[in-house]
Write a structure and sequence with these properties.
Layout: E1 11-20, H1 24-35, E2 41-44, H2 52-61, E3 66-71, H3 98-104, H4 110-125, E4 134-136, H5 145-158, E5 167-168, H6 175-191, E6 200-202, H7 211-218, E7 225-230, H8 242-251, H9 253-261, E8 264-267
Helix pairs in contact: 1-8
Length: about 270
């Protein structure tokens, strides 16, 4: 399915694949989806399996997508010298996992957070690939006012959009998700005063990957630009096997025809 531009009165969707350079097999899966025109945008992790030459070659081999950075403060080690960011890492030099990060965010030095975020963005830019957007691994930009201010700061500095913080998952009926969406609507209203973003974020594979769930979530695509969140990839690692199910669905003729039936046109972050 090719990416189309300049078509009015049709719903526009960015299909974004998170976690490029989390794993080589994940990279392979994302590349295949870009080549067939389904994935139109990618978010890149720079502190794990990344190097700038491989990233630039990936970009040249798969040019039909926008590429943004997936700021990662919850997995692996910082790209900045540990002595400069000691408040955001544990005593082994690794980032805290998401639950501990949320618990400790109040004690983290904002200068350390800023320094690591800046270093990761600089690594991306040093590759020569144009930066199209800024988002975050485990949605850490959404968890506090401190992180929101940093997101606004860097999105404004580089004049790029961010991910909409209000997630749509029609299968998630939990009270926690309801309360979370209420909080994130407030977060979105603050963000939109300062930065650009798509109007909605739809997690079509959120609670499960049944076709009925995907249909329900796609029905929530509104006029304007929305982002569909995906985590596709191949992997020999057991914890990543669910990503292969996403590839299977995204590659299917059923999914392509579903987008067409809803008059959905694919776009990328350059149009935001």
């Amino acid at each position: 399915m090719s990416l189309k531009k300049g078509i009015k009165n049709l719903k526009k969707v960015i299909i974004n694949a998170d976690d490029l350079f989390l794993d080589k097999e994940i990279n392979r899966g994302i590349g295949e989806l870009i080549d067939i025109g389904i994935v139109t945008s990618v978010s890149v992790i720079v502190n794990l399996e990344y190097n700038k030459k491989d990233f630039y070659n990936f970009y040249k081999n798969h040019p039909n997508a926008s590429y943004g950075i997936h700021i990662n403060l919850t997995n692996g080690v910082p790209v900045t010298h540990q002595s400069s960011v000691y408040s955001i890492i544990d005593n082994t030099g690794r980032f805290y996992d998401p639950k501990i990060f949320i618990y400790r965010i109040h004690a983290m030095n904002v200068k350390h957070l800023r320094k690591e975020i800046s270093s990761q963005i600089c690594m991306f830019i040093d590759s020569g690939v144009p930066l199209s957007h800024i988002d975050s691994h485990d949605h850490i930009f959404w968890i506090s006012g401190k992180m929101r201010k940093l997101q606004i700061e860097f999105a404004s500095k580089y004049r790029v959009p961010v991910r909409c913080p209000v997630v749509t998952d029609m299968e998630n009926k939990t009270l926690f998700f309801f309360i979370l969406r209420f909080y994130l609507r407030i977060h979105k209203n603050v963000l939109r005063r300062y930065v650009r973003m798509p109007g909605n974020l739809i997690d079509i594979f959120g609670s499960n990957s049944k076709k009925s769930s995907i249909i329900k979530n796609l029905l929530m695509v509104n006029d304007g630009i929305s982002e569909i969140l995906t985590h596709p990839g191949y992997s020999y690692k057991r914890e990543f096997k669910h990503r292969e199910r996403e590839i299977e669905i995204l590659k299917s003729l059923w999914f392509t025809n579903l987008l067409k039936s809803y008059n959905i046109v694919l776009t990328n972050f350059y149009e935001v």
